[in-house]
Write a structure and sequence with these properties.
3 strands, flat, 3 helices, ComplexI_NDUFA12, NADH dehydrogenase [ubiquinone] 1 alpha subcomplex assembly factor 2, alpha+beta, NDUFA12, 3-stranded antiparallel sheet, 147 residues
Length: 147
């Protein structure tokens, strides 16, 4: 034990401790960017090393955090619901559809307000009991036990 690598055990322990405290530099393939500014990365699966699923993540732009909503196409890619990342054409098409829906909703709202309409009020209900059916008599119909 006085020879070789075992001679400097404390040096090995300290070197491993210092290396474990260093941040790891994870290198992934940049897969795309969305209109918010998030950058998406992937490390592909490698079955020869026992890694069956790819690792996917994103980095938000400076000033934004991970609580902001993601586009649906990218979120489905991150959660492994789709194999391929979304294309620019698909993102642009879905963004145009969402914008058109917002504009149509605003037109409908202005039309409703111009007609003098208001939001429908929920019906007022008092305390309600269980439904009763004429062909079912459950419980104590003669009230003989209610004494």
């Amino acid at each position: 034990m006085s020879n070789g690598e075992y001679r400097h055990v404390w040096r090995i322990v300290i070197r491993n401790l210092l290396n474990s405290l260093k941040p790891r530099q994870i290198q992934g393939n940049q897969m795309g960017r969305d209109y918010i500014g998030n950058i998406y990365y992937e490390i592909p699966a490698d079955p020869s090393r026992g890694k069956r699923k790819p690792s996917r993540w994103y980095d938000p732009p400076k000033g934004l955090d991970f609580q902001d909503p993601l586009p649906a196409e990218w979120e489905s890619w991150l959660r492994m619901r789709r194999k391929e990342p979304p294309t620019e054409e698909e993102i642009a098409k879905n963004l145009a559809i969402a914008q058109m829906k917002k504009e149509n909703a605003a037109k409908i709202e202005t039309q409703r307000l111009a007609d003098g309409g208001s939001l429908p009020a929920p019906p007022k209900r008092g305390p309600q009991s269980f439904p009763t059916y004429p062909d079912f008599h459950g419980g104590d119909p003669t009230n003989q036990y209610k004494k």
